[in-house]
Hints:
The chain is α+β, with helices and mostly antiparallel strands.
Amino acid sequence: MPSSPETTISVTRTRTPQRRPEDASLSFGKVFTDHMFLMEYEEGRGWHSPRVVPYGPLTLDPATSVLHYGQAVFDGLKAFRGADGQVRLFRAQRHAERLNRSCAALCIPEMDAGLIRRSFEAIVAADHDWVPRSPGTSLYIRPTVVATEVMLGVHPAHRYTYFVICSPVGSYYKEGVKPVRILATDKYVRAVQGGLGEAKTAANYAASLSAQRDAERQGYTQVLWLDAIERRWIDEVGTMNIMLRIGDEVITPPLGGTILDGVTRNSALTLMRDWGLTVSERRISIEEVMRAGQDGSLREMWGTGTAAVVSPVGELGYKDQRIVIGGGQTGELTQRLYDAITAIQYSRAEDPHGWTSAV
Length: 359
Ligand code: COI
């Protein structure tokens, strides 16, 4: 039985606030704020005791099931400080709903979506001063659920902990907003139909590490995953959904169980349709992409993600081929999307779809 949205969230403030880092020193996910949100689940009692407490370690028995079998889900959203000084969450409801879908995929009891939203608001309110001010910076919010039953049997746990931590961040990639290089792999696969591909679960990221290490050794930033059966249909990139512009068509692989239903993906598709562009959610093979790269019709390629925002792809490798996209520069539509999404996030533009909410 999920806690109701009216449940009181208690707040215990830290007595030892840390010094906040300079905005210019921020990268991704290296420093954490003064507080965290916690809530537990026990069978028969449901989700209970939602609270904001000082940030600190979790104490886990070595036999805690998440440490052995990975029953864990997370999500990632951001809070932005607008030009007017007001802090706003971006698409909090959609992130709360996706977290619940990930829970369902991993047999974790769902939470009340209203309470998830309130957990985001409560932690951001507690750490309001941590939301950075400089262009391109934000507060990354990481809600996570882990199985905490102490047992080694393989079955869904009867106890869970939900926590939310926050990190002031700059760019996800060391390249900043400059184009990244990605490598399509047919050696490793990420997800199959009927698996966990659309859930934001630790296992998907563990499964990506070997491929990511190989790509980095070859000088690439990220891996472009192909489907697991034929190993030719493009799926998504390490931490982003992928989009391409071939001639006048914008293409992105369809949702269908193997890729993440990205919130930035949905925002980009919505804006491009608002602008009257032809956008296809369709399967596209790596051969079609490489051919378009060679004949010059591949005009732009970019990734979308909460951490990565809208990230241009300047180069794509596949087997022994390598194509440079748009002269290795950020394309016109990529830049337009980046500008439009960040303008809404930082409240420099109207928010016609009601994506932001003030904290
Ligand atoms: C996000 O964009 O929020 C992600 O989850 C990427 C993260 C794994 C770095």
